[in-house]
């Protein structure tokens, strides 16, 4: 296993090959051309893609994709906070979810957590289903993907009940530097998306990267496709970040991705932007995030 990871890391560094730890390829926007989407991702340098399940149905579909695209697609099984009430309304589906989560191709539990920005499910219901998934992750010893919006205090309180827990990843982080540091201090991983292009605050993700407060060994990257299109033409994006983007990454981004449908092939551009904000080489960011994903989720197996 160590030799396999070492060989893959060398390949990643030499070719800026990256791992997308969150692309929603079960979305209906990919029904007609998923083969082409995956081929473009591979051609652009995206070596492996994790497809998250956000409900029992989508978790099952994500698992199906791992068997169609073995060695490229890996799945997660999660009940998103917005879908928490579905388990309460149909209790029998929980058993189906446990079976999906236990499959070897399913490499993590989640996204699960709390979202107080919207009220698709009541907070008490969200907490109940969140805790169920945490217990399942502890039982299976699989990493946990956390979705958190305006609920950090409650998320941390619930996580504190489960000690020790498997590795924890804060997915698609969009909070403040202060919030990020609370996660980093607990040795959680932080996964970033093209949200960098939208973040205009003085205390957000950009500031976190510019100040060097997010260690590479705790960083992961994802596209959250078909969402979170990285708008590299945004007026508020610093010039040094724009000039750090390569012609190759922009070719894939502008030719194949739109605000309506982002694709995994946009990931190299996201990595280059992160590198520019961190004042690091894209190759170093790509290598570190790929290594973190391979090790954390066992993707080289």
TrEMBL record:
Keywords from UniProt, A to Z, are: Cytoplasm, Exonuclease, Hydrolase, Magnesium, Metal-binding, Nuclease
| Chain sites annotated for binding a divalent metal cation 2 | 147
Q: Which GO terms describe its cellular component?
A: cytosol
Q: Per UniProt, what is one GO molecular function of this protein?
A: metal ion binding
Keyword Zinc included in the entry's annotation = no
Q: Which SUPFAM superfamilies match?
A: Metallo-dependent hydrolases
Q: Which InterPro entries match?
A: DNase_TatD-rel_CS, Metal_Hydrolase, TatD-like, TatD-type_Hydrolase
Binding-site residues for a divalent metal cation 1, renumbered to this chain: 224
CDD domains to which the protein is assigned, alphabetical? TatD_DNAse (cd01310)
**Nuclease found in the keyword field:** yes
Please report which protein family the annotation says this sequence is part of: Belongs to the metallo-dependent hydrolases superfamily. TatD-type hydrolase family.
Name the UniProt record assigns to this protein: Deoxyribonuclease TATDN1
């Amino acid at each position: 296993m160590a030799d396999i990871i070492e060989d893959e890391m060398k390949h990643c560094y030499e070719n800026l090959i990256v791992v997308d730890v969150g692309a929603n390829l079960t979305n209906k926007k990919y029904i007609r051309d998923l083969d082409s989407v995956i081929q473009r991702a591979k051609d652009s340098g995206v070596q492996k893609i994790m497809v998250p399940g956000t409900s029992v149905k989508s978790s099952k579909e994500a698992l199906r994709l791992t068997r169609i695209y073995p060695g490229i697609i890996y799945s997660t099984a999660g009940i998103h906070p917005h879908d928490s009430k579905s388990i309460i309304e149909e209790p029998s589906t929980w058993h189906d979810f446990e079976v999906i989560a236990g499959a070897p191709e399913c490499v993590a539990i989640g996204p699960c957590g709390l979202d107080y920005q919207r009220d698709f499910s009541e907070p008490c219901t969200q907490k109940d289903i969140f805790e169920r998934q945490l217990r399942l992750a502890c039982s299976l010893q699989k990493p946990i993907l956390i979705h958190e919006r305006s609920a950090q205090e409650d998320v941390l309180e619930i996580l504190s009940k489960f000690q020790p827990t498997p590795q924890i990843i804060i997915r698609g982080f969009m909070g403040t530097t202060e919030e990020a540091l609370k996660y980093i201090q607990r040795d959680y991983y932080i996964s970033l998306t093209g949200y960098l292009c939208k973040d205009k605050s003085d205390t957000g993700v950009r500031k976190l990267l510019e100040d060097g407060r997010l260690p590479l060994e705790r960083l992961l990257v994802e596209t959250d496709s078909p969402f979170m299109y990285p708008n590299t033409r945004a007026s508020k994006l610093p010039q040094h970040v724009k000039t750090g983007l390569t012609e190759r990454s922009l070719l894939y981004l502008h030719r194949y991705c739109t605000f309506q449908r982002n694709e995994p092939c946009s990931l190299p551009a996201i990595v280059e932007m992160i590198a520019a904000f961190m004042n690091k080489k894209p190759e170093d960011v790509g290598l570190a995030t790929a290594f973190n994903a391979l090790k954390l989720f066992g993707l080289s197996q």
